[in-house]
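Before we proceed, please read the two lines closing this message. Let me know whether the structure tokens fit the sequence:

…
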Amino acid sequence: MSFLKNRTVIGVICIVLSLLICFAVTPLFNQGISQKAEIVRVTKPIKIGEAITKDMVQTIEVGGYNLPEDVVRHTDTVIGKFASADLVPGDYIIGSKIADAPAAENAYLYHLTGEKQAISVSVKTFATGLSGKLISGDIVSIIAPDYKKQGVTVIPPELQYVEVIAVTAGSGYDANTGEQKDAEEKELPSTVTLLVTPEQSKILAMLEADGALHVSLVYRGSKENAAKFTEAQDAVLSELYPDEPADEADDSSESEENSQPAAPSEPPAESEAA
């Protein structure tokens, strides 16, 4: 190793290393920095829980250096997904900010198919809402005191088995999501949201206006068993509100048209005097 003591040799080695850095390492580094990559960027504000549509995002080309590993590179990956955080125009979309399902607090509202609808009724007192013990998935009966001003307390046949999809406090917090951690801060339910048909919703709206209803728990357990109760309720509704056959509907419309009085004909012209 005596040659390392020679200043000339050391100088040559330093020059060679400098040339390697300048003409080999640096170009490779610059190439990595200047390398382009396509990513998905937000073009419109997207709220948490909102479904992402094609007009909300676009693909752009940016420098590939130091990009997050889970940055989304194709719009097909995000369209139809749900935002798990608020996004603003210019944000890059990364995998942790999208989800296949909406946020937990609104998830139940994204499963409506049009056949049934969600409606909330007020819990006037602690007792009328099962002392705050209701949770989503429960099957309940709606008891109506002085139903239709008849002086009797009944469970309307339309409301024997109804599914609870949310229990909400006065602050808007959904008590059935499990987000509230401190038991001392627990709020009592203010409303119960039910999954019902249009016919059921009309009766519930009437009871809500009268300010008189009581919720009783029928079943809490597996979805399979809960479905048996709702199917039984659907069967009752089908008997109470049978679908009108299309032929009968056409006949009734034709009969209505035929039953309308014909327009009076113009009076005959008076004969001219001879």
